[in-house]
Amino acid sequence: MRRQEVIWDLCQSEDEFVQSLQVVLRLFVQPLRSENGTQWIPGLEPDVAKLFDWLDDIAQLHAQLLATMRGCRTNQLPIVTQIAESLRPFVSKLEIHQPYLVRVDDVTQLIKQMIEDPSSDFGEFVRIQSSASDCSGPLPTLLQKPVERLFKYPDYFKVLLSP
């Protein structure tokens, strides 16, 4: 029973995480990309653009991870007995977080400075987008979610891999 609770919690929390990343991408990333979606608008700080690119990659990986989890739940209803083997291939892919983890604190500080600067166009953009009804917090806080998510996985995996 405990294992089922952990699997359910893992799937539910992954779904919430992916949804929150999608909101961040929709509110803060997509509006700053060119019409074809491959380039950034002129004037965007390069470090912010890189962090947003990495965040987009992270969101795509976690969407795939979530789809795999949903598939396991659907294929094994009502009791999910095996999920760890389906998730194992994603463990090495989590290294996609590495450049993000290295730079997130510095870039977050830069973003905070721009938010506080009344003459910063980017700061004004963030202030405006942060007032959206589906924005669940300040951008610097939202950018920490991938870091927080990674810290949760070891505990889930320990329980799921135990007999």
Automatic annotation (TrEMBL):
InterPro entries: DBL_dom_sf (IPR035899), DH_dom (IPR000219), FYVE_RhoGEF_PH (IPR051092)
GO molecular function, one term: guanyl-nucleotide exchange factor activity
SMART domains linked: RhoGEF
Pfam family, one: RhoGEF
SUPFAM superfamilies according to UniProt: DBL homology domain (DH-domain)
GO cellular component: cytoplasm
Organism from which the protein derives: Hydnum rufescens UP504
Annotated PANTHER family: FACIOGENITAL DYSPLASIA PROTEIN, LD03170P
Annotated DH domain residues: 2-163
Protein name per UniProt: DH domain-containing protein
